[in-house]
# Entry
Amino acid sequence: MTRARLLVGIMVLGLTVAGVAAQRGPGIPPTGTIKNVRDNLYVIPGQGSNTTVFVTSTGVVLVDTKLANNGEPILKQVRSVTDKPVTMIINTHTHPDHNGSNDYFKTGGAKVEIVTHENTAKWVAANPRSNPAMTPDRTFADRTTLGKDKDRIDLYYFGAGHTNGDAFVVFPSVRAMCVGDLMAWNMAPLIDPATGGSVIALPDTLEKAVKGIRNVDLVIEGHGNVNTWAGFRAYAEFNRALLTAAKGALSRGETPEQALTALTKDTKFAVFLREQLLPELEYGGTPKSRALINLNVAFQELKGEPVTTNFGPPRGGGAPGRGRGAAPAPGSGPAPAPVPPAPDK
Ligand SMILES: [Zn+2]
# Structure
């Protein structure tokens, strides 16, 4: 089983707790050391999603809890900066690398409130592998505010993207926000059509966030980076350009590879189209190969076909719908590529 396929299993099928623990491979880095983002806001990398830690006057709020069986390492990192109890978990979306260790913080009847977007609650309820600690105690539709003054958190929902339940979590006092997997590793995001994700909806959602969210300058991605507001704006622009390139190529009878070539001509998008494998990227591929995947997804969505290319272009041809027996298109290959072992940190 390639590491890429393993992650497909973890993220989409939601392996059992034991299964995830057993298959925790060398390609998924361990829970890392807590890093200060700004003031009372921290991030813990590794083992799936970033876990964001917001220390309020009354307790600790976590955004996302990584894969299963990481509660203890997460708490150990939290304890290095505060003795306050964990009182709330916000899950940015339904994937089990973001809510997998909720249960650790709920054991023994601990009063920890779980908060998600209302669509994420539906996906959690629909997934037979969910455990009760993934079920939210509180949901929101378009916008809500938790806490006040320095402890205030604003939650926003602007539409589908990675799934159709992706929350933006804003901490106004420290001018920072979490964006879940709407943005991860600063590259075209994975799209999960099984939970309502959409390449067509994504640019609208990101542009609404750019317009609707104010006074943020640090953006914590779902995996990997802490980016800037300017980086987030550029990312929104790139995802719009990707969809525009797909529409243009499709209307001219061209392939997703030709759309990628057109996209590459605008040098301002170079950062999103790099050809290097990024260290610690769990699901493999390069920024460029992920852009090609999303162009394939866009072709399928625009044609009204079921999305089957969100983990790689079809074998034997880059253009979906061309048929699996067709000659390989130039530049298409088996994707995503395997990830090199992560360096120890
Ligand atoms: Zn995800």
Observations:
- The longest strand covers residues 51-55.
- The pocket of zinc ion is lined by residues 11, 93, 95, 98, 162, 181 (CB under 6 Å).
- Confidence is low (pLDDT under 50) at residues 1-26, 317-345.
